Amino acid sequence: MRKHHNKLFFGKYTHKATFKVPNINVLYPTSDYYIDKMLSKFKIDEPIAKLGNFIMDNRQNMKFRIQNNNITFYTNKSLSLDLIKNFWENWCNVTTVDIKNLKLLKKDTVVCKRLPLGKFKYQVHVDRNMYHKISSEQRDQLYNYLIRNTDNATITNSNLKQWLSGAGAIHYDLNGYFYVKDEKALLPIYIISDKIVGHVRKFVRV
């Protein structure tokens, strides 16, 4: 059972369980009407029939996806255990969210075991139209800050680095990003220009 620390599945479910069932794609389309119609072609104790009935009985409490011969369910712990118990022979794997870390999760927050590049707490995504909003002097200041303060910041996005250096295209309209070490290192970015930052992603190490 692997742990997934970043977020709830679909913002709601704690468990993702996958099962391998030959010909499971016959249940597609996955509306109750089509599933019920298809079930008449299978014996009641066959995995496809049992899974079809499970879907219709529990649809409101889960999400699921059929791909090739696999079906993946996104559920709570109780429903996930019911699935594994009843379809043990078809079960492939399960991934769970670590409940104790959910209190740390806010918008644009990622819980991780290791910070990016071992030390950077923030990933700064630049404004998509930044090239319209900052001057060439501000662009140079940002570039110099990022490349001369390697303990506190770094650019790993090659397109952004090229544009900031002056070697790239005149217009930059990609979703580039760079990393900064902490809030103190983030402050100079806003001092250079409050038009640089589109949004900031924070990493929390646990």
Brief summary:
By secondary structure, this protein is an alpha+beta fold. The protein has two domains: 98 residues, no CATH class; 97 residues, no CATH class. The chain is built from seven helices and ten strands.
Count of the separate structural domains: 2
Categorize the overall geometry. elongated
Number of continuous helical runs: 7
Structural class: alpha+beta
Low-confidence parts lasting 5 or more residues at pLDDT below 50? none
Main-sheet strand order equals 1-5-2-4-3
Radius of gyration: 24 Å
Strand % is 15-25%
Secondary-structure map with pairings?
Elements: E1 2-4, E2 15-20, H1 32-39, H2 47-58, E3 63-67, E4 70-75, H3 77-86, E5 91-97, E6 109-112, E7 122-126, H4 130-133, H5 136-148, E8 153-154, H6 158-165, E9 177-180, H7 183-192, E10 197-205
Parallel strand pairs: 1-5, 6-10
Antiparallel strand pairs: 2-4, 2-5, 3-4, 7-9, 7-10, 8-9
Please, could you describe this protein's structure?
- It is a single chain.
- This protein has 206 residues and is of the alpha+beta class.
- The relative contact order is 0.17.
- The mean pLDDT is 86.
- α1 packs antiparallel against α2.
- The protein is built from 7 helices and 10 strands.
- The protein has 2 domains: 98 residues, no CATH class; 97 residues, no CATH class.
